[in-house]
Amino acid sequence: MSQIAIIGAGAWGTAISIVLGRKQRHEVRLWAYEDAVREYIAAHRVNELFLPGHIIPECVHVTGDLRSALDGAGIVVSAMPSQHCRPLFEQMSPRLTAQTLVVSATKGLEQTTLLRMTEVIEATAKGRTKDLGISALSGPSFASEVARGDPTAITIASKHPDIATTVQREFSDTAFRVYTNDDVVGVELGGALKNIIAIAAGVCDGLGLGHNSIAGLITRGLAEMTRLATACGARAETMSGLAGLGDLVLTCTGGLSRNRTVGVELGRGRKLPEIIAGMHGMVAEGVYTTDAAVQLARQHGVEIPITQQMHAILNEGKAPRDAIQELMTRTAKSEVHLTGG
Question: What CATH number is given for 185-328 in this structure?
Answer without folding.
Answer: 1.10.1040.10
